[in-house]
Amino acid sequence: MSWRVIASEDARNAARSKTTWLAAGLTVVAVLGYVVAHDYVGEPAFPAFVAGLAGVVGVLLPAVAILLGYKSIADDRTSGRLTLTLSLPHSRRDLAVGTFVSRAVVVLMPALLALVVAGVVGAVRFGTEGVLWYPWFLFATVLFGAAFVGFAVGLSMSTTADRWITLGGLGGYLLLVTFWGGLQSAVLVVLHRFDFEVLQDMPDWALLFRMIEPGEAYARLVRAGFDVDLAGLYVAEGAPPYVSAPAALVLLVAWAVVPLAVGYRRFRAFDL
């Protein structure tokens, strides 16, 4: 399949980039560094250790995914290399899918390898309670990382303007990782005429609005496997079924697919 050829070539090109190796090294250091740090910041139990790893992943992996994906196609368009690529028997769809797959592999492989090592060390140091659910945690991490890769590659297809791509990548990270919860709370308070008590008892639709944030959906998936202090809003008594773990899974898949589809639609309409 043509997209596999593009994915292979793009992965080789990414592997030659110093930025890729720097990002991979940072991921490994951060994950394995937490193995040591957990002694000082967390409970000596395996589920608590996994929750701490999820916190590290939740901040770091989106940054790495956006950094390695937000110019993955735009740079080739501005340099003219894309014209050569598409002159071969490859379609624009092949390019979109192949780039997404290759960048997902480049982003996720170092993280998964580091997390596997961390999981083994964590089980030895903090016990094996819940260790059989660790593959579920790895699966949730793959979905979480793929969500931001889809966002970044979709952004890269949407324009060639370097300023807008940079602002989109930075703004996307800040909104989806840092400010979403605060924005949701502000909207909720305004809609309820500045009655701050609503933040203590959110309506059902507000719970879904908050879980749309990829990090919240990721936390919900982790909570499905481990009884930890994550995603408590979505497992409280009376929580609606549409903030369940399957809903979180659907949301993360949507974050990977929808930005990619929107970016591809714009990319398909552009002249190279």
Task: Report on this structure.
It is built from eleven helices and no strands. 77% of the residues lie in helices and 0% in strands. The protein has 272 residues and is mostly helical. It starts with a helix and ends with a helix. The model has no long low-confidence stretch (mean pLDDT 90). Helix 3 runs antiparallel to helix 6 (92-126) and helix 6 (92-126) runs antiparallel to helix 11 (245-269).
Task: Give descriptors for this structure.
single chain, 272 residues, mainly alpha, 11 helices, globular
Beta-strand residue fraction: under 5%
Q: What's the overall average pLDDT, rounded?
A: 90
Biggest sheet overview: none
* Total count of strands: 0
| H and E string | HHHHHHHHHHH
Précis, in short:
Helices cover 77% and strands 0% of the residues.
Secondary structure elements and their pairing?
Elements: H1 2-15, H2 18-41, H3 46-69, H4 74-79, H5 81-87, H6 92-126, H7 134-158, H8 162-191, H9 204-211, H10 214-225, H11 245-269
Helix pairs in contact: 1-6, 2-3, 2-6, 3-6, 3-7, 3-8, 3-10, 6-7, 6-11, 7-8, 7-10, 7-11, 10-11
